[in-house]
Amino acid sequence: MASTRAQRLLQLSHHRPRIYHFERIDACPSTCSQSKTLLTTTTISSSPKSNQLRPFSSTFPHGARPATAGAARASKQRAGKAQPSPGLMQKEQMKRMMKDGSAFQAMGLAPETFTTLPLRDRPSFLTDFSTRWLWEKTRLQKRSKQLFALLYFKFWAVRTRSPDAVARLGTNAKMRYRLFEWYDFELFRTPRIARELYEEMYRALASGELDGVAGKIKGDLLGSLRGRVEARGKLNSTEWKLVRYTKRPRCVGYSVIMPNPDSKEPWNQSWLQQAVVEVESLQSVKRIRRVPDGKGGYETRDVSEGAKDREGWPVPRTVREYVVIQKSVVEGRQGRWMLWGMTKPTTVLDVKRELREKLGLPEGQA
């Protein structure tokens, strides 16, 4: 028994090692046409040449074809025609609008604008101290920000001459330029400018001739005025009379908007000035209508309602409006002051609403 096992062990030591070969079968026989599963077969070779293993088949399955030159070229073309992101497109559009000045024309009331209430309309310190203090504190904070911004723009961000123009100046002229020549933001002239534009606008509205003020009034406001003139009809007209100003016009809000002041040279900046001027006056409006006179013509009649004064005008009434004017400078080229429209003063409710938005509180909480 032992000798038999020993002989078997000796015979196994002389056996050649078995070498396995694998190959892929891409096509199934007819018996497995429904499954179409890749099969593997194992073959045992005892020939001397079987020491070299046969590699796996390099046949690509369906859907995994190598990319051709045409496909690569098409993918490159698609990559070259990729659309920019919406954020990038918005930035590019804003740059173009800033360059031609249309961005300032499309801008509404400047952010952080605080229009001061008259003293008689403010909450009392005695009866409602916390509310009055909240309003006054907000006013002081925004006024301080606007003052520091104005000083920065006037003495640092904006220059009236380029370095080449300064180099051509004489010694005394250079000294005067360094010490006294700063850009005039016309803050103290805004009441007079607003008063002139205010009177021109109402006179043009009363007469219906708005072409003369087309370059002095913002487009949206001008369109609204034209609509009011057309709504009257051809047989109706108005006359406007400014009796007097009950108080001197005063600037109650001022802002300077300069996007990216560090991205341009100080003598080539673009910015927008916006001022809110309180105008309070006595005004009277007379309404006139053309009616047939029975002889084939027309006669004018005063159809104004209410009491009349000695001159036949309706009794004047007090009108208080907050006129918004603005002036843009695009790449150093100055525009003109234009009438933007009217606004309302900043009330306590406006201050509380803004505070809730900053704190993320829902409506009704402060």
From TrEMBL:
Region (Disordered): 41-86
Superkingdom assignment: Eukaryota
InterPro entries referenced in this protein's UniProt entry, alphabetically: mtLSU_mL45
One Gene Ontology term, aspect cellular component: mitochondrion
The entry's keywords: Mitochondrion, Transit peptide
UniProt biased composition (Low complexity): 41-50, 63-74
Annotated localization: Mitochondrion
Compositional bias (Polar residues): 51-60
Protein name per the record: Isotrichodermin C-15 hydroxylase
PANTHER family attached to this UniProt entry: 39S RIBOSOMAL PROTEIN L45, MITOCHONDRIAL, LARGE RIBOSOMAL SUBUNIT PROTEIN ML45
Species of provenance: Elsinoe australis
